[in-house]
Design a protein that fits this description.
Blueprint (H helix, E strand, L loop, with lengths): L9 H8 L22 H5 L5 H5 L4 H6 L3 H7 L2 H12 L11 H20 L3 H8 L2 H13 L2 H6 L3 H15 L1 H17 L5 H7 L6 H8 L19 H9 L6 H17 L2 H11 L4 H16 L4 H6 L2 H13 L4 H17 L14 H7 L2 H9 L10 E3 L2 E3 L5 H14 L4 H10 L1 H11 L4 H17 L3 H8 L1 H17 L8 H15 L3 H9 L3 H17 L15 H4 L6 H6 L8 H20 L9 H19 L5 H9 L1
Antiparallel strand pairs: 1-2
Length: 647
């Protein structure tokens, strides 16, 4: 009724039009003139073993194609229990009666095949686990008993277990949540750790971040899902899709997910997670997975766990832990988490809300601005590092990740437009310290990009930017940066990588000065600023405004662009652009020589010619600036050197 018959093969159409007992045994029946499955003969024998079936290459395709023989064979309690053992347990070491090949199959191949079978989500197979609680317990026992020695045998095994476990949580969350509560009661009776503490001990495993989110009842995008097309649906699933049937009780599932979230809060899971982070500050995988899970919880929006994380006492405790381990991966991932928290809580600022208050979670971070500013000034731990030779020059001392991430967090705070936030940053003196670091490291482009964002925000968004400009000595430092670059070039060194950002900052100051009289007065009071603009900045801006490659030369064989983009064309136009009409090499050389002579002659007469407009004016401006630099530049100007000394 829903698909034209010509789009569905006759066997599949016959299966869909009949009831569930329709004669359909294999996906191979859907292919015309091919109705034999490689597994049919094997399953007809009564002595076939599970290992023999798992070794068949077409097993996964047969299960996805709803081969009834294969599914009936697998959907027994004994075989499902074996599949779970292959998935969750390492095989014993090979004995004399067992070959090394059989051991490797049980160690590597069978866990993968078992994971794929469970992820096919076949009701007859997964229903066996649903109806037998001891089989469900095997997933939890793996997380409880997994050790580093066992995990090192097959590092991919944990990924297989968590992927299959996640599939069951997505489809049967209520059932697994009930078993989780029962298991937790048993732990408490035996005075053992609750299950979430067991999860923390395994948080370093691959994909544990997504599994933890699923366990807490959050929706997680499944990166393993693929679109297998029509053949991926079994007969029963395809009928459900056509009839829009849905057997999942979303209401009960949502209620159970909320119950699990509250249960995690009641068991102080957030506080225990922060304590666990504090105990393992140097473990990269623990920090990455746990902070990734916390960030995902915050990004999910309004939920009990997110609200608990953003409490003042919890955030203050987290920031104190970060500052305590400022030279560890904990600090790096923690600062990333704080930036995501700020992004999540930053309400869109409207200009008419001048007294809009800072959201409470951001205010907690803002209250520690002074501590993060102090990290920029500290150089402990970086002085012992030897100078680093790079193609652009020698780095005498590195900036370090600690200060770079502190700058990134401060940059995010400077981008906020709350008046109270701006007052906090001004009071802490963060801008002055950022300007100092900005000019102290001339080969750190990442730091310069962050520093430029801060300077731009202050110039365009802060009230009374002239006070911060004067306090930080920004204008004098811009001139001194050029002086240092000029000295480097005289000594034969490569120019400073900072100069591109210097030009951008100067252009922003000039733009602000056009409509801000206080900033304009400050530039006029700065000694050497006018000459700095005229000799260097204007020249750089003029060079940057010229098209790459210069103006196009009008040669004898060039064509009009307006004709190229016209709607009509003619044979004459085609003849003009045809190879026969192109000039020979000697003719091209003669045309170019005559054209160069004409250009030289025009340039000699250009000083009094008012008809030649912008291009020749630009050449004159550039030449005048070059003359100033040679005849009266910074190096030969005693007054300007005196200005630098006074600065």
């Amino acid at each position: 009724q829903h698909f034209p018959p010509n789009l569905v093969s006759p066997p599949l159409l016959h299966m869909l039009q009949n009831d569930e007992d329709a004669p359909f045994n294999s996906i191979w029946n859907c292919i015309d003139d091919f109705s034999h499955s490689p597994l049919d003969d094997m399953l007809d024998n009564g002595d076939v073993t599970l290992e023999q079936v798992l070794n068949e290459d077409t097993l996964i395709q047969e299960v996805k194609g709803s081969n009834s023989k294969v599914i009936r064979f697998l959907a027994t309690e004994e075989n499902v229990s074996k599949l779970l053992d292959f998935l969750t347990k390492n095989p014993p070491q090979p004995s004399e009666s067992q070959s090394q090949e059989a051991f490797e199959l049980a160690l590597y191949k069978y866990p993968y095949i078992a994971c794929e079978l469970f992820c096919c989500d076949i009701g007859d197979i997964n229903g066996v686990i649903e109806s037998h609680p001891p089989l469900i317990a095997k997933f939890f026992e793996y997380l409880q008993n997994n050790t580093n020695e066992e995990a090192n045998l097959n590092p991919a095994r944990s990924g297989y277990v968590l992927r299959a476990f996640g599939t069951f949580l997505d489809k049967h969350y209520v059932l697994f949540a009930k078993h989780l509560f029962q298991l937790n009661e048993q732990f408490q009776e035996n005075q053992q750790d609750v299950f979430l503490e067991i999860i923390l001990n395994q948080i370093h495993l691959p994909d544990m971040e997504n599994f933890l989110l699923r366990l807490l009842g959050f929706a997680v995008e499944n990166h393993f899902e693929q679109d297998f097309g029509l053949s991926a649906f079994g007969a029963r699933q395809f009928r459900e899709l056509l009839s829009m049937e849905n057997n999942h009780d979303h209401t009960a599932s949502d209620e159970k997910k909320l119950e699990v979230k509250n249960w995690a809060i009641d068991n102080n899971w957030i506080e225990k997670s922060l304590a666990f982070l504090n105990q393992h500050p140097d473990d990269e995988f623990i920090q990455m997975n746990l902070f990734g899970a916390l960030a995902a919880v915050v990004e999910k929006g309004d939920n009990p766990i997110s609200l608990h994380i953003m409490r003042d006492d919890v955030l203050s405790n987290l920031i104190q832990i970060l500052l305590k381990h400022a030279d560890s991966p904990l600090y790096i991932h923690g600062v990333d988490f704080l930036q995501k928290l700020i992004d999540q809580n930053d309400v869109h600022y409207e200009s008419d809300h001048e007294e809009q208050k800072i959201p409470a979670p951001i205010a907690v971070v803002a209250n520690h601005t002074e501590e993060f500013k102090k990290l920029l000034a500290e150089e402990q731990g970086v002085n012992e590092i030897q100078p680093i030779e790079t193609p652009s020059g020698t780095i005498q001392k590195p900036l370090g990740e600690t200060r770079l991430y502190a700058l990134q967090l401060l940059r995010r705070l400077f981008r906020l437009k709350y008046p109270d936030m701006q007052r906090i940053l001004v009071h802490a003196g963060a801008f002055t310290e950022i300007v100092r670091v900005f000019f102290a490291y001339n080969l750190n482009n990442i730091m310069h990009s962050n520093g430029y964002t801060v300077i731009y925000s202050v110039l365009h968004e802060f009230p009374q930017p002239e006070n911060l400009i004067q306090e930080s000595g920004l204008l004098e430092k811009l001139i001194l940066a050029y002086k240092d670059c000029q000295q480097r070039e005289k000594n034969g060194d490569k120019s400073s990588a900072l100069m591109g950002h210097v030009v951008s900052v100067v252009n922003q100051v000039t733009e602000v000065a056009e409509h801000n009289p206080e900033v304009a007065a400050l530039t006029q009071q700065t000694k050497g600023w006018e000459k700095f603009i005229r000799v260097y900045i204007n020249q750089r801006n003029e060079i940057a405004s010229v098209d790459l490659g210069g103006p196009r030369i009008n040669s004898s064989y060039s064509y009009d662009q307006s004709e190229t983009f016209s709607d009509s064309s003619s044979d004459e136009d085609d003849d003009e652009l045809s190879p026969q009409k192109m000039p020979r090499d000697n003719e091209q050389e003669q045309n170019c020589e005559s054209e160069q002579e004409q250009i030289s002659h025009d340039e000699s007469l250009s000083n009094g010619d008012t008809d030649n407009s912008s291009k020749e004016d630009a050449n004159n401006t550039t030449n005048n600036a070059s003359d100033d630099m040679v005849a009266g530049g910074f190096d030969d100007d005693d007054d300007f050197d005196a200005d630098f000394d006074s600065a």
